[in-house]
Amino acid sequence: MTEESLLTINIEIPFPSNRTAELAYHVLRVDAEPKKTIQKEVTHKEHLLIVKFQGSSSKQLRVAVNSVFENIILINETLDAFGDSISETYTHFT
């Protein structure tokens, strides 16, 4: 499939701090898409979590975006329940 025929969705999700955006990034970056027809790129910049999706099927893109939003809801609920990390750096996966 050529680059021009791919559908693209870019999402920027603000978090209260750089630290919480980094935590969300580390959670989402290891979650591979089950369908290899969808490409997902997760990055973070300051307090923003940035997710880019590319694929040829709008239905598969919708499913992928919904999955990421469900994970972000779970991340926020976990942070609300247990609080933010005490340390300023996250080194478990680096």
UniProtKB/TrEMBL annotation:
GO biological process entries: tRNA processing; tRNA threonylcarbamoyladenosine metabolic process
Entries under InterPro entries matching the protein: CTAG/Pcc1 (IPR015419)
Localization per record: Cytoplasm; Nucleus
One cellular component term from this protein's GO annotations in UniProt: nucleus
Keywords in alphabetical order: Cytoplasm, Nucleus, tRNA processing
Family statement drawn from the similarity comment of this UniProt entry: Belongs to the CTAG/PCC1 family.
Function: Component of the EKC/KEOPS complex that is required for the formation of a threonylcarbamoyl group on adenosine at position 37 (t(6)A37) in tRNAs that read codons beginning with adenine. The complex is probably involved in the transfer of the threonylcarbamoyl moiety of threonylcarbamoyl-AMP (TC-AMP) to the N6 group of A37. LAGE3 functions as a dimerization module for the complex.
Protein name per Swiss-Prot or TrEMBL: L antigen family member 3
Organism: Popillia japonica
